[in-house]
Fold this protein.
Amino acid sequence: MRRAPLLVLALALLLLVPACSDDDEPRGPTTPGGGGGEVEQPGPTSWYHDKVWYEVFVRSFQDSDGDGVGDLQGLISRLDYLNDGDPSTDTDLGVTGLWLMPIAESPSYHGYDATDYRTVEADYGTNADFQQLIAAAEARGMTVIVDYVMNHCSTQHPWFEASAQGDPDFADWFLWRSDNPGWSQPWGGGSVWHPGSRGYYYGVFWGGMPDLNYTHEPVVTEMLDTADWWLQDMGAHGFRLDAVKYLIEEGSRLEDTGATLAFWGRFREHLDLVAPDAFVVGEAWDRSAVSARYVDAGLHTVFEFDLAEAMIGAANQGDARPVNTQLDVVQASYPFLAYATFLTNHDQQRVFSRLDQEIGRNRTAAALLLTLPGVPFLFYGEEVGMISSWVHEDVRRPMSWTGGAGAGFTAGTPWQAPAANHGSFNVQAMQADQGSLWHHYRRLVHVRNGSPALRRGTYHQLGTGTNQLLAFLRHHEAQAVVVLHNFSGGTLAGWSLGTAASQLAPGPYMATDLETGEELAGLTVAENGAFADWSPVGFVTGRGVRFVQLVPVP
């Protein structure tokens, strides 16, 4: 791949408007800018912004021993598929971070109801297997975070069994009362109080998952100590925190309480002392204004559910407006880049099905995920178009490695049948097809990995004159990249770019292809930030994405 000469890149450092460094404080709120949207000001970023994360359900990723259940040794055997540590190869996806769904001992298939927070689920292996995974991932430049389910555990956990028996050492580890006040789940579901041996106990999700009592200090101490153990003894690099909205109730208010927010501030302060480089991302499944409160409370990031819906909506409709509208909300709600982006996860119907199994729409959704600001997460199998219904077990089927009976997942009988389309939509078939969805994902991951602007840069929307073309400027220090998304099925004509506002210094620029270094056209940024002399780049074909790097001309 040909790159711009070093001298030109060096001059870029001098000619582009300086941005704050990773350690600088934010410059304040956004200010009005031309071309649509706001002019975002840069703020602090960290190592986790450089990652493309990949969500793995260990039970469904790879079975190493033929029992039909995925395990940690199976995951280790597939790490080279995810990232082989060699940038010169083209057979790995290129992701650089892993999120493991719960791997602690549990009676359920999914693991969100632990019976022992400090022992790896026997179906998956041992604690030593996990430590081996960490070493193998780090050797490839990857980091690993684990799902930490702090809100609740299993009724089969020894803590709950002791509490149910009235053991004074554990009586207050859970919430008990003599009557059922009739409170319903916050999302309009069933009762949150469940009959037990001491009356009724509280469990916001269901009776098999009693909530821990975080107003009882021994619970807090134990769960903070367990976090330390995963980080310091086991080597995890951080946590995906489940159900962060529901930790501490205040009377009949069951979510988003002041006490819950205060606890997450305490949790962050604790981690900053014992493991200051640890990364935490919270699941606060709500509209952006509510989710952002958990970042304000202390979490590094939370998943941005509204933006996920906007990306899927835009891809389905062939219209950029849902993304433009939601990004305005996101930028007004969160500190700089303090949100995690995704398309769907283990609790939702898979994106390939959400997008009617239409390849072009899925290409658009993938391109949005990996070029927009935020910390991106892919769900395993997304890159090969796995399908599902809305049923959780269906969403979490074994990874589609091949078109065979076991999908390349196991030599035995899989715990769950593979996805119905695995015969054609699988890694083996798609790696052999250069035009496949898998290669599209791989291209996007590698472009993002190589671009500071896409990983840590500001975002400025550029007006185009058509809702079928989304254009924006990503800018970080010496690198400025214009990203162009064509939502139509063909080549667009008659469009133009809005202003770059104050993001670029006035003067002439050479436009080059970020991926190949090919010189494309010249343009000028006027004193008012407007683009001038921009040669039409109609080469952005239907459902395509193009990366145009702007390099100042000396």
Observations:
- The chain has three domains: 6-45+458-552, 48-150+217-449, 158-202.
- Residues 6-45+458-552 form a domain with the Immunoglobulin-like fold (CATH 2.60.40.1180).
